[in-house]
Write a structure and sequence with these properties.
Elements lengths: L1 H30 L1 H16 L3 H5 L10 H27 L3 H5 L2 H5 L5 H33 L6 H26 L7 H20 L17 H7 L4 H24 L5
Helix pairs in contact: 1-4, 1-7, 4-8, 4-9, 7-8, 7-11, 8-10, 8-11
Protein name: ABC transporter permease subunit
Organism: Sporofaciens musculi
GO molecular function, one term: ABC-type transporter activity
Length: 262
Amino acid sequence: MTLIKHELKQGWMTLIVWTMVISFMLALCVLVYPEMETQMGDVSSMFAEMGGFSAAFGMDRLNFGEFMGFFGVECGNILGLGGAFFAALLGISVLAKEEKEQTAEFLLTHPVSRREIVGQKLAAVLIQIFLMNVIVITVTSASIWGIGESPDMRPLILLFLAYFILQVEVACVCFGMSAFLSQGGVGIGLGMAALLYFLNIIANLTDGAKFLKYVTPFSYTESADIIADRCLEVKYLAVGMVFTVIGVGMGFWRYCKKDIFS
């Protein structure tokens, strides 16, 4: 628990900044909806006729004239990309920063095993992701209540759940990569999150790239599918869980064996 508290204390500013930015952007997105609602019917028709572009973002299957259609695309992209970047930032640095900051000697002199160190660092990452989501959901819910909307709760909850699972997967994959790094690798983590996002767009654009949906966690956060089917895509979710377990396993295996320089 001591190391968890230490990690949370070190990362509190990053958590606050990312949470405030994502919450503000989501709240702003929700609050502008009443001003745009009357125009959304025409916008929805326009997007439906844009072929590949609208298919890439699922806009051909959503009604922008309804709140959930608007929320799924506009707010979903904010939470999807913002949350993925935050999760990647946490995961990619957590096992590498002691070598980068030359504080490994202090850490490893404590009476805890490397396995305990890895476990507590992973727990700290997951706690920060959970806290960010709790605040974001609270702010977004208050914003929805503030504009007088009463959306269908099931797809809304599933959307938030899907993005939370996505963040956990991205964080755990980056966590595993972090054990192989000694210089932080923030660019690697953020780049990987962006790559996964664009892989999903490519998969939506062409049938020949549909297999990419098994690679990217953004496949099970498709708002059009969640709103229409009222459930998560289990086959993509299951593959994502496999990647999550592999990432965690790689982190434990590598960190417990590597030579750590202080």
